[in-house]
Write a structure and sequence with these properties.
With 155 residues, the chain is an alpha+beta fold. The protein is 22% helix and 24% strand. It is built from four helices and six strands. Strand 5 and strand 6 form a beta hairpin. The protein is globular. The relative contact order is 0.14.
Length: 155
């Protein structure tokens, strides 16, 4: 895990995540990964910007984040969930959602089996990746960053 950039300290005290990400070249975002390899950036809610996500996806660079509470997204499609697959236990929905900007992304909704808390993730990862893996990726990112506490944002 690496941070994509240090903030632009000359212009501001703390730079917004998406401003920093947009300044990066696709080569920097891919962090040296060879052609044919996928790169996944797992960000907090400040890392959501659907147009760049859509563009970067064409270079096998994917993003995963939690949905902001204030978002209003339309649901043009629902992907079936394999309830017999143990990795998808707790998954409530796997949807294609659209923004007012005309960009579509994937939304995975799951429930923590212990606390029954609902979590909603947004990603440009393809539907070929099981939704349970999408949720597990976000949880794993938190566990690497802060291994001594249970993240209230994931299960």
């Amino acid at each position: 895990m690496t941070h994509p950039t240090v903030s632009n300290q000359m212009e501001r005290k703390k730079e917004h995540d998406m401003r920093a990400l947009r300044r990066q070249t696709i080569e920097t975002l891919r962090q040296g990964a060879g052609k044919g390899r996928r790169v996944i950036h797992i960000r907090d809610r400040a890392g959501i910007d659907f147009r760049p996500w859509h563009q970067w996806k064409h270079n096998s660079t994917y993003f995963l984040s939690r949905e902001k509470e204030s978002m209003s997204l339309e649901i043009p499609g629902v992907h079936p969930i394999d309830k017999t697959d143990p990795v998808d236990q707790g998954i409530i929905a796997d949807e294609l959602v659209g923004t007012r900007m005309g960009v579509s992304v994937r939304r995975v909704t799951c429930q923590d089996p212990e606390t029954l808390t609902i979590y909603v993730y947004l990603t440009n990862l393809p539907f070929s990746m099981p939704p349970g893996i999408v949720a597990l990726l976000y949880k794993s990112r938190w566990d690497v960053e802060n291994p001594t506490t249970k993240n209230p944002a994931t299960f």
